[in-house]
Amino acid sequence: MTDWLDKIKWTEEGLLPAIAQDAQTGDVMMMAWMSAESLALTVETGFAVYWSRSRQALWKKGESSGNLQKIHSMHLDCDGDALLLKIDQIGGIACHTGRRSCFYRILEDDQWIAKSDILKDPSEMYKK
Predict the structure, then answer these.
(1) CA–CA–CA angle 15, 21, 27 (5° rounding)
(2) What is the pLDDT of residues 63-108, one digit of tens each?
(3) How many structural domains comprise the chain?
(4) String of b and e for 59-91 (b: at least 16 CB within 10 Å)?
(5) Which residue of 18, 50, 77, 83 shows the fewest CB atoms closer than 10 Å?
(6) Which CATH number goes with the domain that contains 94?
(7) Residue 107 sits in which domain range?
(8) Looking at residue 56, what DSSP letter applies?
(9) Residues 90, 94, 98, 103: what is their CA dihedral angle, to the nearest 10 degrees?
(10) Residues 6 or more apart from 5 whose CB is under 8 A from it?
(11) 9 has a pLDDT exceeding 90
């Protein structure tokens, strides 16, 4: 591990929560987990690479859908246990549901209401 990776307070599973934020608009696009390896690859390539807990594998954002995240800057919080990625969301869609942001539901009258349109059908983005 490099010195800068040693400054991070990883979870017991060796992960770090990372929030992706649109560098131009400030919109929060998504949250995902990073491992030391995925964070090092993100720094090396300039594109967001996350750790998929469900697949137990590295996951380059946009590899299947084409909706890549180009890194503008990375900010570690004061406790060293959360990361903010300021990104350019290539393709304009961050969410696997086909929406711009994963944060599209708003609590109204004790119900989560979808407040964002689907920009692209997920079956079109993830053709196998």
Answers:
(1) 140
(2) 989 999 999 999 999 999 999 999 999 999 999 999 999 999 999 9
(3) 1
(4) bbbbeebebbbebeebeeeeeeebbbbbbebee
(5) 77
(6) 3.10.20.810
(7) 3-125
(8) T
(9) -150
(10) 36, 39, 40
(11) yes
